[in-house]
Amino acid sequence: MTAVETESSEVVPASLQGGYLAKQCPEAVQLDVLRPVDPLPTSQFRMMLAAAGNAFERTVFAELLSSVSGAVEVDRTREPNCREALTTEAMRAGAQLVIGGRLPVDAVGHRVGEPDLLVRAGDEPKVNGRWAYVPVDVKHHIVRDTPELPGNPAESLGVAPWVETGGAAASEFARWTYGDLVQLAHYQRLLEACGHEISEGRWGGIIGVGQQLAWYDLDAPCWAPSEYLEERPAGPLSTMESYDAAFAHRLTVIDAALRQRRDPAVPLLAEPILVPACAECGWRVWCYPRLEEAGDLSLLPGVDMRKRRLHQERRVTDLHGLAGLDDRTARLVAAGVQLADLIERAAAVEPRTSIGEVIPRRHRQIATLAREGVRNVDDLKGLSGQTLRYENSGIGDLPGQIDRARARLGPEPAYRRRGVDRLGVPRADIEIDIDMENVEQGTYLWGVLFTERRPSGPPAVEYLPFVSWDPETSTGELDAFERFWEWLRGQRAAAAASDRLLRAYCYSKSAENSQMRRIAGRLGLEEEVKAFLASEQWVDLYAVFRDQLVTGTTMGLKTVAQLAGFRWRSEDAGGGQAMVRYAEAVSDPNVTIRVEARRWLLEYNEDDVRATVALREWLDVDARPLPSVETLGNATAT
Asked: 138 near 117, Cβ under 8 Å?
């Protein structure tokens, strides 16, 4: 029988599924059965995250085992049936805490699962003689947005969740992470199947970074209906409702795939759709070419699954269909002009009647129509009936989506946005490109490329890294930032003293801004940093690019820098790999590996700042002849 993986990476028959199934992309579920090619291997980044999560889990387990009286740990190295028997024995005996257990298989519900913790609720068994338990998972990420000191789960686990939350749907400052809660819902169903569920609602907990515990009411309505479902119930849905629908849907996808393997005439139920999870999915080797071949709407930035569905409901099924919509009608729809009502009213009057006579009280709409060349009833004939279907569709950025689709299909790599006659890029005598590198524990590197432009001759260019390799990142980040800020302060002062213009650049400033503000608060530099970030000296090249050009592709630096012909020296350059390298750079026992990791990180950071220089030069010179997206018209639809 076909096998798939559970949340613990254990291979089980397709008839039994772990909680991971409910949060997995349906196409990935389908491909796990069909196996048309070999998927790409798990990335180093994902393996690093898994290793860190396992280490954190072991730490939590050890502390709970030593501090909770009556805790029972199930040896996860034992055979599954043995672990299941040990877990059942512990629950029947009323163990206060079961660590690393495996719940009895739910053959009817097709479920199997291994909750990290099972916490006993109450001091007496239920009416059926069985003790009640609440599932708790351990996750190596933040679960509560609170400045409180690290938690003590050994104390917190003993409090009933509905008591701890004081009647609220979750603990104070709790983060609602869909994947975490769906996993808890899976364990809840398994507890119900074996008769060990609590009777006071449905609850689950997550122990996260800082060993803080957050409780959640799994019956609290909080999630929008999934776009994967053909029949979407009215939302919002509770975690239990969302899980049940998703799990049942994935089971039907597996069933159809199994039947299709026996009979190719059986239709499959899933299709490739570009979603954020694709970036780390091994099946992208199969899905990406098919998405491109189909011109799938999800390839277009800004078209999520909801908007993709809304387009398809209006018989626009690919990028060519979207590019072929009428941009003028789309602008009127986006501006809120009530076109359907206007056309109905206009049918009763003469073609030469002015729009103002048809809708005399709608002054703003009359002005908007006039700007688009619609001044009398006869002009309404030029509007597109197909595009009119988007009135009240909920797609407010339809004109932009049309332009992006045309740009993606057009012959040029990029186009000027509508209304942009000439590209403009802020330049300066002294240009400083800045890029930071960080991990969850803090920011360890501020890299700058210092460029001094001269009246004659080539500019002077120097890369300067302000870095700390202190394994205590939260401490080291203060030293790195202090040195960086002192240097930047000096450059700004020198430029002002010599009456030269200085600008500092980054690409997509939100990350740099948040880290600067956060660290400045620790160093007492809040006002100084705040003034710099609000000044004209701080330039976001992403905004410069976004506000003037349209490409129809993603606008990350790795993508747009290619327009300038820039390439990173490392083929695996990226944020995930940088985190892997940082872990090696500060903690690997092999000095050679540490040195190589540090070299890689500095080279990667230097390439990032050199990329923004290359992009700025391209915008200032080679990009100026690019045509406007207005020149494409509807021709790309053919």
From this structure: yes
